[in-house]
């Protein structure tokens, strides 16, 4: 038979899903394993949202919807963006897709021709790199180390731009680092993007999860010139514990939104109609449950960071948002743990899972090979036990 697509064959599986799959397989076999891999809240979807979905089913709101999503949901998105970020969009500028990841892919489809370069600050969410390659783009990775708090500087951004650069992907707050840019830092990056004529795919899916009283700033809020070139990505998965409902959205200039909607109309269409009606309730209804989850995540973050930094051989910096912490394992490189010589975070994650029964995500797929990511989207009891196991494992 003829060869499969070289582009498709070059796509690598998500390391986060691979670890989660191993964890779930071990747990299904009755192994006492604790998982810190999955990037989804451990809370249940709020009852009011589930009730809205059930009501939609009983009302027979189960037919095809417009490719860009139902008008009620697009209006709800506009209202939420205005209330939370002081952004003005119209429903014609909103595109609903099957999760924020899907929106990033559709945005790249709308922007990129084969060979176009897309700047990607590292550490980056594992899927960004592959999504760029899936559309024929070229990822241009800029290393942003722990000493820089994993943040991109305007100087590094400007130096990476070539005549082939089309866009940059910015994730704020960040997965996997949990770091969040200040308004001044974003303004400095925005000035470069305007000067160099770059599109910005600003993934803000964790915007409700900011800690220490820090104020989140949406990239699109930095002026009309910035907003014109920004494709804002968001959704309901993290803020409302709705990962499996698969509803994300993009907000962009109407001309960009139209191209994205056209692409959706010939590929997946819109998400499930029932999920869309649930998302309407999520964004239009009371928001107290969002704040309750945020407070709980902050308490967990405080514990995991303080405790991790007391364990010899590992360390972390304090994340400012999302629900991840990057554990630095550089001091373990060259050591033998569980009979395995540790060369990088991949080696550590593998032996830590096999010997200590704790699943964390190696960050080689995030562009940070000497780190592993812990998700604190799990109970405080699990966090305490996981860190106990880490301490015992490193002491052996």
Structure description:
It is built from 14 helices and 14 strands. The protein folds into two domains: 6-44 and 289-395, Aspartate Aminotransferase, domain 1 (Alpha-Beta Complex); 62-284, Type I PLP-dependent aspartate aminotransferase-like (Major domain) (Aspartate Aminotransferase, domain 2), CATH 3.40.640.10. Helix 3 (47-58) crosses helix 11 (273-284). Strand 13 and strand 14 form a beta hairpin. Helices cover 41% and strands 15% of the residues. The mean pLDDT is 96. The protein is an alpha/beta fold and 396 residues long. The protein has a seven-stranded mixed beta sheet with strand order 2-8-7-6-5-3-4, sandwiched between helices. The protein has a three-stranded antiparallel beta sheet with strand order 9-14-13. The chain starts with 5 loop residues before the first helix and ends with a helix. The protein has helices at residues 6-9, 15-28, 47-58, 71-85, 100-111, 126-134, 154-160, 183-195, 224-228, 254-265, 273-284, 288-308, 345-356, 380-395, and strands spanning 34-35, 94-97, 117-122, 138-143, 165-171, 199-203, 230-235, 248-251, 324-328, 336-337, 340-341, 358-359, 361-362, 371-375.
Please state the overall shape, judged from the principal axes of the Cα atoms: globular
Would you identify the regions where 5 or more consecutive residues have pLDDT less than 50? none
CATH structural fold name of the largest domain: Aspartate Aminotransferase, domain 2
CATH superfamily of the largest domain: Type I PLP-dependent aspartate aminotransferase-like (Major domain)
| Helix share, percent | 40-55%
**Could you say how many structural domains there are in total?**
2
Using the coordinates above, name the CATH class of the largest domain. Alpha Beta
What characterizes the major β-sheet?
7 strands, mixed
- The number of helices is 14
**Which structural class best describes the helix and strand composition?**
alpha/beta
Q: Roughly what fraction of the amino acids lie in strands?
A: 5-15%
- The number of strands is 14
CATH architectural grouping of the largest domain? 3-Layer(aba) Sandwich
Ends apart, CA distance between termini: 53 Å
Integer average pLDDT: 96
